[in-house]
Amino acid sequence: MYFLRNASKAQLREAELARNNRREIVKALADGQITKRDLLRWGLLTTAGTMALKNGLSPFARSAFAAIPTGTPPSPVPPGLKFTQPMPRLNLQTPLPLTGTRYSDPATNQTETEFAFCHPRTTTPLANMPEACRTSYHSRFNANLPYTDTSGNQFSCVNPISGLGPMEGRPGLRSDGDYFAHQRWGELPPKVGYLLSLGQIKGGSSFHPGLPAQDANNVWSFGSRYNTTWKSSSGPDASKPAGYYGNQTGNMTAPLIRVRYNEPVVTRIYNDLPVDRELNGGFGRNEISTHYHNAHNGAESDGACNAYHFPGTFYDYHWSSVLARRDWKSYQQRMDKDFKPDDRRASTPDGKGGLEKVEGDFREIQGTMWFHDHRFFFTAENVHKGNFGMVNMYSGPDRGNEGIEDGVNLRLPSGTSEDWGNLDYDINLTVSNPALDQRAQLFFDIFDTDGFLGDILAVNGSYYPFMEVKARRYRFRILNASMSRFIKLAVVDQDGKAVPFHFVANDGNFVNRPIAILDGTLDEQGVAERYDIVVDFKIAKARGVQRMYLVNVLQQTNGRKPDGAVSIGSAMRGISADPAVGKILEFRIGALAPDASSDFWDKDAGKQLTEQVPIQPAVRTRTIEFVRSQGDSRKTTDGQCIPDCGPAENFPWSIKINGQAAHSLNATRISALIPQPGEVELWTLVNGGGGWDHPIHLHFEEGITLNRGGAFMPETEKLVRKDVWRLRPSGQVTFQVRFGEFGGAYVNHCHNTVHEDFAMLLRYQLLRGADSTDPQRFVTPTPVPTEGGVRWKDSEILPEGDPRAQQAAATKAKGKG
To answer: Which residues, including other chains, have CB under 8 Å from residue 281's CB and lie 6 or more apart?
Structure first.
């Protein structure tokens, strides 16, 4: 994709002209000056929706100067910038206390509890801040009902920016049920709240002080909606009162939220992006839907139900903080005999040095998670712009306090100053893959359907930073936040020698025991996968090591799949074919420091982190094949997607269920229906081609990785719970999964987000039938958001995805026999 830095100036000019031409076409499309049909008629666009292979336009066309593709110029970074700036820590968000108020909802005629966001360490509600409630303000807007806050102030439920629709983006009551009312609200009332604002980047923000600042709309990131730094008579802006909670802009570094089990959260996310779609820096959509990857939440708070919202609105997400198998009593006969509901490890910190019991299975405790945009057809563009953050989930075993010895706490590197959630030696690392245009502005090519690769690896939004560490153990939570790039990371000392470390968690799930990585190199890490490792810098310091590096050894030169790993020596020297190969983070080892964490190299070498969830007989099996073929999302009478396809003309990716016809994303189509929670299923994911790799993500639940169809499986994923699986070229993976706790519409998709946006995604539906008043006992209708409010489409179920239909057909055939 990228020309080498020593390419001729004529080649680089040609490549930049082609990129600018593509950008002009994107702008003309966005402005409505031309249509996709115009591009097809002019021969500039293929029927698959990709750029025609024309020199001066396509990044894949042959150059006029050489046989290599026209490509893209390398990011214009001056030499000597690597490892000259300190790595920023993620922006830790401040939780706000909540206070509850009982009231009678005139829209539903039910008694509800609203939760008001309060000033920190008080129970004084924030003025003019709508309370968080079970039902949506969309219903009040439709009923033309005003909103009254806890102080008696009354105001409209209309979007204050556009004036066109409701102030909340969450869909409201439909005539047959309130499908987007928060599930289990009374049982799991929120205890803390977060107020986040997604908006334009803060002025002066850049990947490095030696690089130009990013334009306001080139990066969209999260800031805290509540800002305690404003002063009433002095400070950065005297016009804003203390505790100002207007639009707050973020910077290049992602936010971090700390959550603990048994402490449900309501996270309100305001869309503070420009109303004008054209103000996007050339890519990205100003409509957002936030997915909490991969917590156990109701579908209305999962962020992938087609319930996106517009500038000026907010969306309240109810993050339940429940442990999986909370409902074990309701399907006790189907639970395994080794399940121990009273095990002390099913617990959470109580804030006072002790533990609080948590309902569920301790073997399914989660730790490292993240959240990101999931606006169908625009996920890659929006996440690439910075629309993501991380979440650390804490429990009795994963307490985040290394000093408490209670027989439950695993004492992972963290710190001791707080009862739980210490971050002194527990470090989140987000690895993203930007590319810069010739103005050094963030760039994304929306016409590449294979996958977008940048030529930079940034850590926590920073261009190749350094981190000063103490000579002791550290925990690193590593997230691959790229769009299409796979990585393979190694820990290497200043002399190019691999440094051993321990692997403790995969996709936020503990492995049974710490795994010693003696060659210092992790397995390949696909997009959205998280690997937790423990590195002991004290051992390295004792051997005379002053510098260590996190090194990417995986070469990838197209968005379809990696080319393969190179040696550590080659990676340390740099590979010209892929500028993203090499050192990405420098560790500078300082003085010895106290360390109360577990020493896996010594007395805790065999320490048990968790226990294996047993493999059980499956109630049913499903085979899901991901293929490259012409999708059918637009095969409707009017040529439009149901309900919405975005700007693409056609889609090159689709999915087959149980060997039946291939389908591409249609938000109203259900490809897998789970008739009731608690049943064990066996899913096999298949890569239908050898020319690409797909990291496949299952929302809401994790699966126990069983096999790869006879192919090699590393110890770090064998029988380990995961939510993202790299399929490998022409590969497959089988896992056991048990759905429970909540109901509604969820998705399973490729997390090469470019593939996802070009319709490599399926919807699955989880039904709950125990409560006759629960709308989740029915199939969820599909919301179609508009600025004036949500419309609805009825959903359809593919026969191959409906076990009830299959059972009925089998019973009928048996009767005839």
So the answer is: 215, 217, 218, 219, 385, 441, 442
Helix ranges (DSSP H) in 655-761 = 753-757
Nearest to 181 by CA among 742, 792, 764: 742
Task: Give the separation between CA 667 and CA 504, rounded to whole angstroms.
Answer: 37
Task: Give the angle 453-458-463 at the CA atoms, nearest 5°.
Answer: 120
Handedness of CA 220, 223, 225, 229 (dihedral sign): negative
Residue 664 and residue 652: Cα distance in Å, rounded?
9
Local structure of 716: helix, strand or coil: coil
Cα–chain center distance at 478: 13
Q: What tens digit of pLDDT does each residue of 698-708 get?
A: 999 999 999 99
Residue 146 has a pLDDT of 85
Q: 266 phi and psi, to 5 degrees? A: -110, 120
Alpha helices by DSSP H, listed for 182-337, are none
Non-local (6+) Cβ contacts of 785 within 8 A are: 169, 171, 287, 306, 307, 308, 309, 310
- Calculate the dihedral angle through the C-alpha atoms of 623, 624, 629, 633, rounding to the nearest 10 degrees: 120
Tokens of 454: 């940048």
Three-state SS at 138? helix
Residue 555: partners with Cβ closer than 8 Å, 6 or more residues away = 562, 563, 564, 565, 566, 575, 577, 578, 581
Q: What is the pLDDT of residue 237?
A: 47
Distance CA 767, CA 37 (A): 41
298, 183 contact by CB (below 8 A): yes
DSSP state, 212?
P
Locate 446 and state its tokens.
């929306």
| d(C-alpha 98, C-alpha 114), whole Å | 9
148 phi/psi in degrees, rounded to 5: -120, 125
Distance CA 739, CA 735 (A): 13
Query: How many whole angstroms separate alpha carbon 492 and alpha carbon 587?
Result: 10
Q: Are strands 669-674 and 796-797 parallel, antiparallel or unpaired?
A: parallel
Distance from C-alpha of 88 to C-alpha of 86, rounded to nearest angstrom: 6
Residue with tokens 């892929």: 578
Which residues, including other chains, have CB under 8 Å from residue 410's CB and lie 6 or more apart? 397, 398, 399, 598, 607, 609
| pLDDT given at position 640 | 63
Q: By 3-state DSSP, what share of the chain in percent is helix, strand and coil, each rounded to 5? A: 10, 30, 60
Specify the pLDDT at position 156.
87
Q: So what's the pLDDT on residue 244?
A: 56
Count CB-CB contacts under 10 A for residue 318. Answer: 24
Token code pair at residue 476: 């690193």
Q: Quick one: pLDDT at residue 334? A: 82
So what's the pLDDT on residue 243?
A: 56
pTM higher than 0.90: yes
What's the rounded Cα separation, in Å, for the pair 222 and 201?
Answer: 8
How far apart CA 241 and CA 629 sit, in angstroms, is 57
Half-sphere exposure of 710 (CA within 13 A, CB side): 1
**174-208 as b/e: b if 16+ CB within 10 A:** beebbbbbbbbbeebbbbbbbbbbbbbbbeebbbb
Report how far residue 60's alpha carbon sits from residue 577's, in angstroms, rounded to the nearest whole number.
Answer: 16
Average pLDDT per consecutive 10 residues, the chain (817 residues; last block may be shorter): 70 77 70 67 66 68 62 88 98 94 71 87 82 93 82 83 94 93 94 95 96 96 76 42 66 97 97 92 93 95 95 97 94 85 96 97 97 94 97 98 98 98 98 95 85 95 98 98 98 97 98 97 98 98 97 94 96 89 98 97 91 95 92 67 66 91 90 94 95 96 97 96 97 97 96 92 90 87 94 93 83 68
